[in-house]
Amino acid sequence: MHASNLPRISFQIHPATALLLWLFFVIWLEFAAPFSLLVAGLILLPWLQIATRIQFRRYVRRSRWLLLSLLLVYAYATPGNLAWPALGSFSPAWQGLQYGLLRSARMLLMLAALAILMTYIHRQHLLVGLYCLLSPLKQLGIQVERLAVRLWLTLDYAETALAATHPVSFTKRMAALREGVPIPTAAPGWIELPVMRASRSDYGLLILVACAGVLSLW
Known about the structure:
The chain is mainly α and 218 residues long.
């Protein structure tokens, strides 16, 4: 990979900062209280513009069976009071329904944040962020360039699959998995990355969000 000086165009923060914020958000979701999840949803709402909403709906549509499975597993596998006693053993538990809905809400917020990330950050800039985050691994003798590109291609393939609008049969999905993740044949032999340096505002934003996230868990 070769670096060149290119201006920032599509965002105001460093892509590595955006990736760290998304990763922190995903981890925070696992420990946040229901009220905090509601606040997080309200904070994300202004970012869900037309393009982002379209992306988010595609993610939800592709994940609908996983969301339903989570709800059913929690509803029937969690012990508690029966939601509909007349159904006997076929009735889910109230506690299970609550846990299932809470888990589904966490996943929906994660998908919303992912839609925002993939909409507002250009694919090339996303690779810049991955490269910057993985750079410390050079001290261990790891080829960061190759690792960053492979991660970028995998993420791009997964994002494309989530955003796909045409239905794909289960048989075709299994065949694609057996063949492995396809590498685009039109991919260039080398990739030119823009030189982008994190500013003080990037560090300040990370500290602010980290402090706010930790305080919200108390």
